[in-house]
# Entry
Amino acid sequence: MKKYPIGFNIRTSKEPENNTPMEVCKGVIEPKKSVVQVYFPHRGMGWAYYNDSFDLKVGDFVYVEGKLEGYRGQVTEVNYSFKIKLSDYKKVIAVIDTNVKGDFYLAGSHVVSFDRNAIPFSKVLTWFKAPQNDEEYVSGNDDTNRFPLDDLSKMKISHDAADRGHDYYIENRVGFVEIDGTRGHAIVEGSENYEIEFDYIDGEISNLKCSCFCSGACKHEFAAMLQLKESLELINENYEDEYNGYFAIISKGVFMNTVMNRKVSGKISLGI
# Structure
């Protein structure tokens, strides 16, 4: 059986030694007041923000308050010598934890890990969405929409939604999928980034739900199921020995742009 592992352990000298995964770094390192320039690639613009909660470095991914709240930005400049009128500046409100360690394997358009601590959903979600502090959520389960993963024609979804979901899958908009035992999560990139959760038991999907506004099965769910089906097929074909009831896949683009973007030193080994 031919395997394609990417094994790496990257840590710059400026990063703290911490083996505990963190969803978002909030005050873990002693804060250092600064005015920082933050660039937002999705908006093609940058802006200055006041920071008094984090020890920010160039390359850090952050979320801010104000008009660009919810957009992920990257610190491009840090200034420690300043005098500002505080009311003129919005603040940095969160820093994303992009520290990743572990072995990853190639899986089509994605990379896969079988280590629960490498890229857990709780961490990766903050790579796609700003932390939600005050939102209130309710959910329910519909046990009637059960279907086998290997026959998605049994999924209760409209033809139009399935077609659009297939387009999302082909366009590689399923950024992340995780299976932990019988529980699954996914993130699909649309007009915003949507969270999907489901149960996966004996090849059958149930309790499938998406955070979008659709009242029934939606294109994001269908795209996630297509990606899950492909990923399981690749795992069964190539990495059966590594799969122990847990796996997480993340798109190569997100992985490279988030994990590798700010690294300036370290080692990557690729065996083919």
About this structure: Residues 8-23 have pLDDT under 50 and may be disordered.
